[in-house]
Amino acid sequence: MTSLSAKIQDVFDEPACDKNRGKDAKARKEGCARPLTPGAAAGGCAFDGAKIVLQPITDVAHLVHAPLACEGNSWDNRGAASSGPTLWRTSFTTDLTELDVVMGQGERKLFKAIREIKEAYAPPAVFVYSTCVTALIGDDIEAVCKRAAEKFGLAVVPINAPGLAGSKNLGNKLAAEALLDHVIGTVEPDDAGPYDINILGEFNLSGEFWLIKPLLDRLGIRVRACIPGDARYLDIASAHRARAAMVVCSTALINLARKMDERWHIPFFEGSFYGISDTSEALRKIAELLVRKGADREILDRTETLIAEQEAIAWEKLEAYRRGLQGKRVLLNTGGVKSWSVVHALMEIGMEIVGTSVKKSTVEDKERIKQILKDDNHMFEQMAARDLYTMLSEGKADIMLSGGRTQFVALKAKTPWLDINQERQHPYAGYDGMVELVRQIDLAIHNPIWSQVRERAPWDCQPGVKDEQPSTKNETATVHSAQEFAGTTPTISASVEEIR
Ligand code: SF4
What we know:
Blueprint: H1 2-12, H2 18-21, H3 25-29, H4 46-54, E1 61-64, H5 68-74, E2 92-93, H6 98-103, H7 106-121, E3 125-129, H8 132-136, H9 141-152, E4 155-159, H10 168-182, E5 196-202, H11 213-218, E6 222-228, H12 233-237, E7 244-247, H13 250-264, E8 268-270, H14 276-292, H15 298-325, E9 329-333, H16 339-348, E10 352-357, H17 363-373, E11 379-380, H18 385-393, E12 399-402, H19 407-412, E13 417-419, H20 430-445, H21 449-453, H22 473-485, H23 490-499
Parallel strand pairs: 1-2, 1-3, 3-4, 5-6, 5-7, 7-8, 9-10, 9-12, 10-11, 12-13
The protein binds iron/sulfur cluster.
């Protein structure tokens, strides 16, 4: 645990994070996690955070050294997608029992499990995750992994992020440290080129990176490694030869980006693929960084041509939705997808943002949202479910975009809702992703179910039952808009067909 403590202190001191730099030395030592509220859900543990970051590496066997429940907690709880290997979705655990713990069989069982995986699946690597139980009983997973790697001629990578070490966010960073210590830089590619980049913190949820890659392909830019979405072990092992990097979700892997810059001189920027202008900006910055690292300047012109072409196509597609969505009010309650980019993107098509959470936003993000909304009254850190319900049932928003945790608040308030967090079913990245997001919002708002669920129940229509008006402004407002548009425009007709 001593080396783990040192590692934790190291990741708590992050020069590339503004929030971290804003703290004094004492606050920095305490890390990023907020104190937990008794009775409230605590969120994922460090092991869970490490698993989230690493499991999308698709050809690796992910072996959890723990009693069965840890793997059950963390297994594939996001919608990352693979274009090939399926091994990452096979669940491997040493399934420690009380008897194993009492008899000190943990390390032996782990070694045997690695051998079984090697014989049955022959993966390019096995990632071994420590957990609370195995950290507490003192199993030395680093030593077992080292011995197994020598014996089986296989990369066996210890991921030292037991749940008790801290929060999910800490686990994200410890996973990045494991990649830096044991994977990146271990393979020399024979095809490194001036247009190679890394994309960090992109999880390929619902396959959304596949909406971005064709754009990069058209520019002749090769993604050396996308970490972790749809990644292969050997790509990550040779990621140190990329010329530039983009960090998509800065809170998760900023330490990885900074250390790759320090060790291998790979400059990086933080960007987003959500929204039309943000996607364009990201492509521009990638091209600029590559030119700074020696690529031909002509890539800048090619990038501008591609941006102009793609923006024109996207706007043409979005026009079909403008009439139905113009002026519709959106409440954004998400920490996952970058709020500022989504805010910007929705305002681009004329929607009104009535509120956005900034719980996981950096100081820079908040400043951007303030500039876009021209007002910080619409920003909130966190809204209790009761307040969300009140806001929605009073008709202050036509749709809520959030994660699954608050979906039932919206549904109880009979308000359309769309999942835009990690469990989302549709890809929203890039130009096509923006069109898809707007299409899904249109489907949700104009779904005929809303006029039905807001009708009075038959038993309330009996003679003698007081004829009540719809109980909320929201019901009146949105029913009106559904009636106004339903069946009158090709967009809405198409939407209803798709719902069916
Ligand atoms: S690592 Fe610890 S906190 Fe995390 S799931 Fe396992 S037992 Fe629970």
